[in-house]
């Protein structure tokens, strides 16, 4: 087995667990994540409540489990939107070239000079803190990454031999772009998308943590960390630890998968890995 396959194994295992939790979390949760029980408030992790209970007596394991679907859904939605729009814009600019390509490159550089999380905060504050607005804001601040990558990759390949051969064969511009060039660019876009999934998770959880994202009592990792943070100094460490651990594991999962995909799809990296 190749080294990149070993590196991908932990990420794939974590991904399988998170997908299982996202798909079947509400059915697998041992307690209602919104049900309160003041007689069982702030109980430490134990046999009945694996992750303990919060200040309202809600089972923390059930809330962390159910939150997986919402967090992964927001991150995946944002990445898909930004990948589709950004790759289309960047690929067209790289294919056309000229003034449009130059001005697009400068605009992307300007956009990436701003603190992207602050931009997301401003957008959500202006639009309102709903799940849809969090997805749209995260997608917008991710656009420059895909525009830059697609523009660069298409610009390098637009005069390649196979593209010139297709052009001589009578292929139209849309056919050249979407049928000839984009299939060679998609692997790198997939790597970028996998890595950006982790960043999108952090962005959504961060917005919820500071009060601009999902609102309580909805179960969401950022909300759970925010609710549990004040209790750390009083000894109830589990309230922030377990949702934070879930977020850490999810971000690490997508980072590992992105690194493994990059090693697998990069010819130079694959050649170096194959050397004795």
UniProtKB/TrEMBL annotation:
It is found in: Cell membrane. It is a multi-pass membrane protein. GO terms for cellular component: plasma membrane. Its main location: membrane. Coiled coil: none annotated. Pfam families: BPD_transp_1 (PF00528), OppC_N (PF12911). SUPFAM superfamilies: MetI-like. One of its GO terms (biological process) is transmembrane transport. CDD domains: TM_PBP2 (cd06261). Residues 68-258 form the ABC transmembrane type-1 domain. The chain crosses the membrane at residues 72-95, 107-128, 134-150, 162-185, 197-216, 237-257. Keywords: Cell membrane, Membrane, Transmembrane, Transmembrane helix, Transport. It comes from the Bacteria. PANTHER family: D,D-DIPEPTIDE TRANSPORT SYSTEM PERMEASE PROTEIN DDPC-RELATED, OLIGOPEPTIDE TRANSPORT SYSTEM PERMEASE PROTEIN APPC. Belongs to the binding-protein-dependent transport system permease family. This is Putative D,D-dipeptide transport system permease protein DdpC. The gene is ddpC_3.
């Amino acid at each position: 087995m190749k080294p990149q396959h070993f590196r991908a194994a932990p990420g794939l295992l974590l991904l399988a667990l998170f997908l299982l939790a996202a798909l079947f979390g509400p059915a697998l949760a041992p307690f209602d994540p919104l049900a309160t029980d003041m007689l069982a408030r702030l109980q430490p992790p134990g046999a009945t409540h694996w992750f303990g209970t919060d200040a309202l007596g809600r089972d923390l394991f059930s809330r962390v489990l159910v939150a997986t679907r919402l967090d992964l859904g927001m991150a995946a939605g944002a990445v898909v939107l930004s990948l589709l729009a950004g790759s289309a814009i960047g690929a067209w600019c790289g294919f056309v070239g000229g003034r449009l390509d130059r001005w697009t490159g400068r605009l992307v550089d300007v956009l990436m000079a701003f603190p992207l999380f602050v931009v997301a905060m401003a957008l959500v504050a202006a639009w309102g803190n709903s799940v849809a607005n969090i997805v749209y804001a995260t997608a917008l601040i991710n656009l420059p990454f895909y525009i830059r990558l697609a523009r660069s990759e298409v610009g390098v390949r637009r005069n390649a031999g196979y593209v010139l051969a297709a052009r001589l064969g009578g292929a139209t511009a849309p056919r050249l772009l979407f049928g000839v060039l984009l299939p060679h660019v998609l692997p790198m876009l997939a790597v970028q998308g996998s890595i950006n999934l982790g960043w999108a998770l952090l962005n959504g959880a961060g917005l919820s943590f500071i009060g601009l994202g999902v609102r309580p009592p909805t179960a969401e990792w950022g909300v759970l960390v925010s609710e549990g943070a004040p209790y750390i100094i009083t000894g109830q460490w589990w309230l922030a630890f377990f949702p934070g651990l879930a977020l850490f594991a999810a971000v690490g999962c997508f980072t590992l998968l992105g690194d493994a995909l990059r090693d697998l799809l990069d010819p130079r990296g694959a050649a170096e890995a194959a050397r004795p």
